[in-house]
Amino acid sequence: MKTPEIPADQRSRLPSDTEVSDRNVLVVGLGISGFWSALCLTGKGARVTVSEERGRESIEPHILITLEDSGVLVESGGHRTESFLHADLIVVSPGVPHDAPIMQSAAGKGIPVIGEMELAARFIHIPIIAVTGTNGKSSVTTWVGQMLANAGKKVFVGGNLGTPLAAFVARNEKADYIVAEVSSFQLDTMVSFCPEVSILLNISPDHLDRYRGYEEYIRSKLSVFENQR
Predict the structure, then answer these.
(1) Is 135 designated active site?
(2) Does domain 19-111 correspond to CATH entry 3.20.20.70?
(3) Distance (Å, whole) CA 72 – CA 62
């Protein structure tokens, strides 16, 4: 699926320190990022619905129990148009194509659409070091985290590597620094994400089934610097 660029005023009209309490928030996709996004949001007082294509029988029972015990409504077996159109905010998992008709309908009505990392970063008030590029992201993210740890700093290492940033927020973790691997798919749903340091390793053709060409993929990677200007 091709991924058209979504204008910033459609992706989010909420400030970086957004207040989600008492808002209807739809989380699209129940992978690890969707799971932690939902828990992050309920912890901030949002009314959360998760929309998942898989049937209920295909979702791990402990995930359903944890979410539903936290007050999250899980809609499985396909996406419901009314849930998208009645949301105040939509948080999408990285693999969800933005040109899906249901996503375009929501964006066309001006409903803010952001990703898990953008959501989490709005509640994080310590320096974030973002690492992106086509190859080597995981290794460099791990090395930078280890260097900071060796210097006596408490570090959370995650993002596209391992644990989502939303888990850091949901679990009220403490750290001096966050080192986050960031994929192009995650960068596509950023609005106000502004790392203290951004590291771009390299760019070579990749995910061209998702992008309309190599230049669009390059722009996605370069956007890690956008809010640092």
Answers:
(1) no
(2) no
(3) 13
Model confidence at 86: pLDDT above 90: yes
Active-site residue, 172 included = no
Query: What sign does the dihedral 214-220-224-229 (CA atoms) show?
Result: positive
pLDDT in tens, 70-81: 999 999 999 999
Q: Which of 44, 79, 160, 221 is catalytic?
A: 160
Structure-token pair, residue 88: 């105040």
pTM: 0.87
> Which among 137, 153, 172, 227 is annotated as catalytic?
137
Give residue for tokens 């828990």: 39
In the chain, what are the domain boundaries?
Answer: 19-111, 120-225
Active site residue 137: yes
DSSP character at residue 134: S
| CA 32, chain centre distance (Å) | 10
Q: What angle do CA 12, 83, 96 make, to 5 degrees?
A: 60
